[in-house]
C-alpha cells in the first residue's frame, strides 16, 4: 500500500486457496484473495486515508512442489467474492483439475454450498453457516 509521502511502503503477504479449473492454467479463487483489501474494514480505513492498494505479484503453489508459479489476475467480480488467476507458466502435469459443471440447471439459487479449502476446515464452515444449513448438509450426506 502506498499513502504517498516519504514513509516506507506497507507490504502485506497474503495467502489463500484456489482450484485449478482449466488446463490452460486458470485458477478459481476469491476476490478477497486476489485483492485482500476488498471487504476488509481494517484495510479500508487505510484506503480512506489516501493509501493506494496494489498487488506486487501472485504465486500459485501446488501439492508436491516447493516452487511457486507466477500468475496474473484474469477476471474479478465487482460484486461477488470470486476471481480468476491465470498461471504464467505451464500447469504441473500431476495437478488435479477441478471439473466445473457448466449446465444451467446444475445449481439452484439459494441452496447451501460447501467451501473446499477453507482454512478452518469443515468445522469452521459449519460454525459460520448456522444450524439450519449444517442440519440440511447432514441430512443430504446420509442419503
Describe this structure in words.
With 143 residues, the chain is α+β, with helices and mostly antiparallel strands. Strand 3 (58-60) and strand 4 (69-76) form a beta hairpin. It has helices at 31-34, 41-48, 121-129, 131-142; strands spanning 19-20, 26-29, 58-60, 69-76, 83-87. 8% of the residues are buried. It has 4 helices and 5 strands; from the N terminus they run E-E-H-H-E-E-E-H-H.
CA-atom Rg in angstroms: 18 Å
Strand content: 15-25%
Report the major sheet.
5 strands, antiparallel
Amino-to-carboxy terminus distance? 49 Å
Q: Could you tell me the mean pLDDT? A: 80
Q: Assign a percent range to the helix content.
A: 10-25%
Write a brief caption for the model.
The protein has 143 residues and is an alpha+beta fold.
Helices and strands, with pairings:
Elements: E1 19-20, E2 26-29, H1 31-34, H2 41-48, E3 58-60, E4 69-76, E5 83-87, H3 121-129, H4 131-142
Antiparallel strand pairs: 1-2, 2-5, 3-4, 4-5
List its salient traits.
143 residues; alpha+beta
